[in-house]
Each structure stands twice: as C-alpha cells, then as structure tokens.
Automatic annotation (TrEMBL):
GO terms for cellular component: extracellular space; perinuclear region of cytoplasm. PANTHER family: S100 CALCIUM-BINDING PROTEIN, S100 CALCIUM-BINDING PROTEIN U-RELATED. This is EF-hand domain-containing protein. Gene3D superfamilies: EF-hand. Keywords: Calcium, Metal-binding. It comes from Poecilia reticulata (Guppy).
Length: 91
C-alpha cells in the first residue's frame, strides 16, 4: 500500500512540475498517460476538460492535490464496486 500512495503523490508532483496545480493541458496529458487503462474517454479532450471542471472545486482553472485525490478516490471506488459485483456466471 505504501508504494501505491507514493505513486499517487509522485505522479501528481511530477506532473505539476513544482506548481500548486495541474492546468488544463497538464491535466489532460496526465490523465491520458497515467489513467488511460482505468478510465474511459481519456483520449477525448472535451471529456477530460469536463472532468477537470467537475474536479475544480475552487474554480481556479487548475486541479490541485486535494481535487486530484477526489479523482483517485472516485476511480478506486469504481474499481472496488466493479470487482465486488457478482458476475452473471457466478450463480
């Protein structure tokens, strides 16, 4: 679990490159390169922009670390739910 947390933190910090948040272009690049395997529509600029706007709680045009963690929590929750749902063949 420690390595997963370190990965989450270092992914944000390396993407932000010393800034406090991810601007639209940086967020788009990070989502496409780091989350494409666990999310749909990561190649759609409009879908990622809409996601960014939904995460941007303080409306500053950037995704800060807390807002980024909201995305990570949403993805983790979705993955957990999909893994715990019974499959059609398991009855």
């Amino acid at each position: 679990m420690e390595s997963a947390i370190k990965t989450i933190v270092t992914t944000f910090l390396s993407s932000a490159k010393g800034k406090e948040g991810l601007d639209s272009k940086t967020f788009q690049k990070m989502v496409k390169s780091k989350l494409g395997g666990v999310m749909e529509d990561t190649n759609s600029s409009s879908a990622v922009k809409e996601m960014q706007q939904g995460l941007d709680a303080d409306s500053d045009g950037k995704v800060n670390f807390q807002e980024y963690l909201s995305l990570i929590g949403y993805i983790a929750n979705s993955m957990s739910q999909s893994k715990s749902e019974p499959t059609a063949n398991s009855s």
